[in-house]
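Q: Hi! First time doing this. I have a protein sequence and I read that you can turn it into a structure. Is that right? Here it is:
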Amino acid sequence: MAQLSHRYWSLDIMRGICSLTVFLNHWFLWSNFAPFGGVEMWLHRWLDHGFWAFVSLAWPTGGQHPALVGFFVLSGFCVHRPFECRIGQAGPPVKWRDYFSRRVGRIMPVYWTGALLGLLVVAAVHLRPTEDLLLMLHTAVTPAQITARLGGFSGLWPEEISAGNYILSTVGVEILIYAVYPLFFLAASARRWLLLGLIAIGLHVLALMLQPYVDPFVLFSSVLVMGLFWYMGALVAHWHEKHEWTVPGWWLGGAWALFLSLKLLPPFYGLNTLKQAVWGVLCMWLIGWLLGWEKRSGAVRDRRWSRVLRWFGRISYPLYAVHTPVILLVNWAMLSVIGSRNFTWQLTANLVLSLAVTLVVHHQIEQRFYPASSPDRGAVRRS
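A: Yes, that's right. Below is the predicted 3D structure, encoded as structure tokens:
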């Protein structure tokens, strides 16, 4: 059985790729000034082609970003794995107070930093309004929504919350999952995996039934849908620890082919959730394949491209949590303070400042409240 302190570097690579795809997609889409001149037009076309190639190959259109599904599968694996190692083993009972203390230290400081940066964007846009539709869309908020965001219970909120950093709503869903995880652990300890799976699928069906009555943006980001992907990751942890489960590469190709086939079908009710579910299975298979690949390919760990992706994996949470308000603040400052619509400067500032703020948050906040010496950092790391 693997040690609890073991950190899978291959999963850091997956985490890094997920964080980069989310960031780079938003970096291009939200750098929305019109290109001018031959060089800027060429750059814009190149980025646009890259984005649509990614959409064609990986995005379950009409649903969540594919990397976000991967994040939830990874989260389920990483959080449940150390607890799965304890099932059936002699030892003291789980100290849930320690579990909740680590979860709060891991999630909330960076979460609150991202939330406050988002509110800074809201304040800036209200202080000096612009006619930019992107800024207007992302800064809509009510006092009740601010309370839900800062209180950490946005995962239960029945409305979409923008507040300058709308993607924190998915972190709110994870907070809700972490809060009820002790119940999940009790069922997993009793080997009720089929029951847990039926519950996760049932929540998906409930989301389908609610679509005519509830904002689909809320449904697709809610625990009703995202809980299934978290369960998938926890199930991989169970299979891996109890059966040393790994995945052959052709399984990945088969799941990807099925996913692409679903994208080609004419639309029908429930197609989007079905595509997302297949993509979630693909993420499961990918984790299983990576765990076997890591054993076979130890030398890859120290190659340059691997070190770069693993580095992005380590800073993935602050990058995810802060890049939205940083990009919006740059756009606002260029429009309202500098009075410039230069596309090249917008791209450059959004890239450099997003990474700079990410590193500050990583070193000064994330590592301070959840240091590298934390007992479960190697095994329990948010995607």
